[in-house]
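Journal club prep — side note

Before the paper discussion, L.F. wants everyone to see what a predicted structure for a comparable chain looks like in token form. Sequence:
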Amino acid sequence: MLGLWLASDAAPGGGGRPGASEISFDVADGAALSEIHADWTGKGLPILIEPVEMPFGQTFVAADPDGHRIRVVAGVKS
């Protein structure tokens, strides 16, 4: 699936470098999401959005060293 939206409509707002993007991947459940969040936090990745419940499921967003956003999502229903 490919989703496109304005950076101003993204949460958090698109503040990455020009050309920055967001990639999202699904995990099995909230427990898996929590494990990844704890691992990435422990490794010092910047967390842009702490775990939160959204209409599409539980999610959090981290940033890679180039400012690209990495979204982890649990609870996605097809």
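L.F.'s comment for the group: The chain has a mean pLDDT of 83. Keep this in mind when we get to the figures.
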